[in-house]
Amino acid sequence: MSSTVIRDPNDADQFSLDRLRSCLLQAGFSGAGNLESYDVEQMDATNASMYKIRLRPDAPDVRLPRSLILKVCRSQEFGPSEVYYYGRDYRDADDIPLLACYDAAFEDHAYHLLLEDVSDSHRNSWELSPDSEYAAQVAAAVAKLHSCRWGPDRIKEAGYPEMDTSQLDRYLAHVERGCAPLLEELMQEGRHDLAAVARLVFDKLPAVLRRRIRQFPSLCTLVHGDINPGNILVPKSGSGGSVFLIDRQPFDWSLLSWFGPADLAYLTVLFWEPENRRKLERDLLKAYHQVLSGRCAADYRWEQLWIDYKLSAMQCFYVAASWCIDPAERTEMRWLWRRELERAVLAFQDLQGGELLNAAE
Question: What is the residue range of the signal peptide feature (predicted)?
Fold first, then answer.
């Protein structure tokens, strides 16, 4: 991997034919020396600058990709996590749902990634209505990712702290700043029913999570943290083929070493329609458990995984609360956090969250 961040691919001092050839050669493309030229095409993107790099070899039969994707991110919010995601954390793993990365660097709150381009064969899953095949694909992809860093030892090998209550405390110190404003908004709306459920979760869930950490400290993994339909690339053909999980960009307060089912609950509770979640969540988790158990986690009982999923579903209340910390964001993103809250309440009711919280007392 490189030590110099590419901020502008049109600047020859930052990005050049020689640099591109070197990256491809290190990646095992013997035809890198036959790369004659390349074109840079800026793409539409929201949170980063994205470029398609079209490769022009000197002959049609040269073994090179047709194109690559260059992602350039400049943000005070994100550290080097995505560089580590592609270049370090899973470097020696086989059969994982990551795009190939040919170059990456981070410095001064900026980074770049030179990635495999699968846009001809894959798309994100925003427009897909989840079905059993899609659920099985996602479950397998997430399980493969989690299996590589399952348990405290494998997490620490990658340079991350093991799951403990201090990490949870840091997370709660941030998200709980939005709890009171969220409850106040609901009371002003007259939605006392929603406020009562949210208040119950905010009052009781932290102690239950701490107890779970102490009881089963080894049942954890390095989570992605943002498994949403935009970060799941699926084959355009609709069946078969690889699924890719992209864009791991945690905040400095995010949970990193955590319950594996949290990545799935984040997707099913907040992004799937409730009827799809109800229909598919158990099969999704069964498929996840089967793949995970076959690769690493034979001691992770289904009963505990199901409990972890329920706890993770309740964590989705904090996702809604996090939008309510800043007054301007609370107003601007009201359309989003209200939907997230309502879906979290439905999941709480469907999964009998109150019984779980009360039983833990």
Answer: none
Tell me: pLDDT of 239 over 80.
no
- Strand partners for 35: 57
CB 114 within 8 A of CB 15: no
CATH code at position 84? 3.30.200
- Tens of pLDDT, residues 280-290: 999 999 999 99
Tell me the C-alpha distance between 118 and 99, whole Å: 8
User: Within this chain, do residues 279 and 144 fall inside the same structural domain, yes or no?
Assistant: yes
Domain interval for residue 270:
125-359
For residues 355 and 81, what is the distance between their CA atoms, to the nearest angstrom? 37
The CA angle 240-246-250, to the nearest 5 degrees, is 150
Q: Are residues 224 and 317 in the same domain?
A: yes
Task: Say if residue 360's pLDDT is above 90.
Answer: no
Are residue 228 and residue 211 in the same domain, yes or no? yes
DSSP string spanning 138-154? HHHHHHHHHHHTBSHHH
Q: Are 89 and 222 in contact (CB under 8 A)?
A: yes
CA distance 67 to 85: 21
Domain end marker among 116, 139, 162: 116
Quick one: 80 and 147 in the same domain?
Answer: no
240: left (phi > 0), else alpha (psi -120 to 50), else beta? left
Cβ partners under 8 Å of residue 196, min gap 6 = none
**Structural tokens at position 34:** 């036959």
3-class DSSP state of 297: coil
| DSSP code string of 213-272 | HHH-TTS-EE--S---GGGEEEETTSSSS--EE------TTS--EE-THHHHHHHHHHTS
- Distance (Å, whole) CA 52 – CA 331: 36
* Whether 178 and 318 share a structural domain: yes
* Closest CA relative to residue 321, chosen from 211, 195, 170: 195
